[in-house]
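Methods — Computational structure assignment.
A single polypeptide chain was analysed. Its primary sequence is given first, followed by the predicted tertiary structure written as structure tokens.
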Amino acid sequence: MPSTTSMTATSMTAAPGTGTAGPRTWAAVLALAAATFSVVTTEMLPVGLLTPLGTGLRVSAGTAGLAVTLPGLVAAASAPLLPVAARRADRRTVLCALLLLLTAANVLSALAPHIAVLLFARALVGVCIGGVWAIAAGLGPRLLPAHRSGRATALIFSGIAVASVLGVPAGTFLGSLAGWRWAFAALTGVTLTVTAALFLLLPPLPPETPVGLGTFARLLRTPAVGRGLLAIALLVTGHFTAYTYVRPILDRTPGLGAGTVSALLLGYGLAGIAGTIAGGAFAARAPRRALIVIAAGLGAVVLLLIPAAGSLVVPTALLVLWGLAYGGVSVSAQSLLSAAAPRAREAGSALFAGVFNTAIALGAFTGGRTADALGPAAVLGVGGGLALLALPALLSAGMRRPDSAGERGSRE
């Protein structure tokens, strides 16, 4: 017999798709966006601090680069495992605990006396990334009515784009002024504030259905989920194969200075925010069609950059279109998986987060090997080709609902 506490918590939580779209609910969605902003800023901050970080800890640039690689690999593993480990815990409690762990990891990073300590802290960051993605990504439909859930999901994922445009550059600037340790220290204040916002604004969120390891196997046997994840893996791997080496790609353009490159990347980031919003609106109506358009557009844009090195105008336009297309990937992919497994959203989100983070690492590795062997133009060819290979998987991924076995949570 359920306890009075659990019954009260359940009664305070709106059923999926029936939440009210009041100011407090939208504030809760903004708090979730702040959570995704926090984890992505923390994940990517070392990209702008690699040189001073390596100098401060007396390690090579390659060793310092593990501070970027390690969190992504840990996130890929932790995303499907954390919902299983916390299968019966209130999701508000889990998210607050993850943000507190992120705060501790940033404190440890700021104080790290040795690279081993920093890498331990970065592994903790990976746990937070995987957990926040797995849980927060699917909460839009629980907080808001069905006709507003797409906008809510887009807003949650906008934290990722804003982190790239504002969070990482701001942290890099602070690091250049006060040192890399102060950049991590500043993030502790951000993550503590986000923790408080999540605790105060989110309603109680008991798990809809406990997630077990068997849940993932059943979902993967569902055609729409399996093919959707395959398409996401190809699309994201293709993107990061090319985008990880966007600087040498842009450097092919004659007379392009460092200031112009920075402006182009800022334009890419701003287009990404717009793409997240537009992708969320499109995906709310037709998620598979949205991803088909995105895969075709992203693949075409990346391939068109191969012959576009002769002038500044064409690469600029293509880079903005690239940002617009990629900005819609996360929200459209999440909407696709939610539609394919409407009663197993958290398990779908966990699989999505694991595949996505694995694809980031695989894309960066593929791009590096291709760039070393064949040069920047080949990186664009491989990246664009992988993105276009997502189209057959998406075209065959019918949106038939999973059977009840695929949707049921496992209690094993």
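Note: The two ends are 20 Å apart (CA to CA).
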